[in-house]
Amino acid sequence: MARDENGPTLVRGVTSPEPDDGARGARGVIASLVKRADGTVRLVLDDARMRVDGSWEPRGIFTSRDYPAAPLLELQVDPRELESLGFSLVARLVTAGQVYGEGD
């Protein structure tokens, strides 16, 4: 887990220097972590669609991957793995309209 002098901390993403305008696309990906009985942690990425009220509706699983718990929770995953995951995520967002027949 990421820590600072005060203990556990959230890791900030790379953000634009501009303030968040709140705009979001109609399609997205929901990410979650699931602790498993065998001591691993599963990263689950679900395709999602934005509802009229602004909440996200899962559409089905995009992909999942199991990791040994300690390296993942200590953010010690191979950077190439994370790079591949990031590329797959962006590629999925680009093609999601084609997959679900919802072109922009």
Give a brief rundown of this model.
The protein is α+β, with helices and mostly antiparallel strands and 104 residues long.
Query: Helix and strand string, N-terminal first?
Result: EEEEEHH
Indicate the mean pLDDT: 84
- Total strands: 5
**What is the terminal separation in angstroms?**
38 Å
Tally of contiguous helical segments: 2
Give the strand order, joined by hyphens, for the main sheet. 3-4-5
Structural class by sheet pairing and helices: alpha+beta
Which stretches are low in confidence, meaning pLDDT under 50 for 5 or more residues running?
none
Q: Which band does the percent of strand residues land in?
A: 35-45%
Rg on CA atoms, Å:
16 Å
Proportion of helical residues: 25-40%
Largest sheet: 3 strands, antiparallel
- The oligomeric status of these chains comes to single chain
Shape verdict: globular
Helix/strand layout:
Layout (H helix, E strand, L loop, with lengths): L2 E2 L2 E2 L18 E9 L4 E11 L5 E13 H5 L5 H22 L4
Antiparallel strand pairs: 1-2, 3-4, 4-5
Task: Write up this protein.
- A hairpin with a 4-residue loop joins strand 3 (27-35) and strand 4.
- With 104 residues, the protein is of the alpha+beta class.
- The protein is built from two helices and five strands, in the order E-E-E-E-E-H-H.
- It starts with a strand and ends with a helix.
- The relative contact order is 0.18.
- The protein has helices spanning 69-73, 79-100, and strands at 3-4, 7-8, 27-35, 40-50, 56-68.
- The strands form two sheets. It has a three-stranded antiparallel beta sheet. A two-stranded antiparallel sheet has the order 1-2.
